[in-house]
Amino acid sequence: MELYPAIDIRGGGAVRLAQGDFDRQTEYGDPVGLARSFAAAGAPWLHVVDLDAARSGRPVNRPVVLAVAAAVDVPVETGGGVRTEADVDELLDGGLARVVLGTALLDDPDLARRCVRRHPGRIAVGLDYRVDGGGRAEVAVRGWEQGSGRTVGELLAELSDLDLAAVIVTSIERDGMLTGPDVDGLAAVLRSTSVPVIASGGVSSVADVEALAALEVGVGTVTRRLEGAITGRALVEGRLTVEEGVAACAR
What we know:
This protein has helices at 31-40, 51-56, 62-71, 85-93, 103-107, 111-118, 152-158, 183-192, 206-214, 233-236, 242-250, and strands at residues 2-10, 13-18, 21-27, 46-50, 76-79, 98-101, 123-131, 137-141, 146-151, 166-171, 197-200, 216-219, 222-225, 228-231. The chain is an alpha/beta fold. It has one domain: Aldolase class I (TIM Barrel), CATH 3.20.20.70. β10 (166-171), α8 and β11 form a beta-alpha-beta unit. α1 runs parallel beside α3 (62-71).
């Protein structure tokens, strides 16, 4: 498993939202400087999200995203507001290693298929979910402000024939809350797909990273583990260092 330090961008700056709520924001300064510090500390990847674009579909922070990719020597994946093949081309041509599709999967179901064919190994999907009163893990879209009416399981089944680089699964209730990851939900995802799974939401400590690294499920004769773990607030608030997180992943 690999550590993916997260940088969320809103209004050109690095921020964290609590549970995806745009009214509960904490600011953390310059995204490029933050990216350089994470890379210098040994981060193997960076995970960058354009929050404004995720909400509106307008890539207002794209120059900042491209500047982050140009500033570091580690691979960077990005999502938020990626709605068209032209968006994907601009980001990959601009130095991003991987592009994450989210809302576009619901708006244009064939987009992922077209992009995977054109850019094998460089397209991931992001499934961000809230658990409703009936226990359904419903995927949210447009900056987490709207429910899609679709569950994580349903969308995983529809995407099963795609050669995706990864599926990034985010527990919205836990995101930015430092309450620990949804280990049970992640185990269910590992059982549901053969695509590499990256966990997001709730990581608060070295112990949380170790719990994710230790997670494994048996699927027939195969043992499935997480591909990566995304963490943001725990790093910028000093609850976890990149060095500690990378070491925990290795253990």
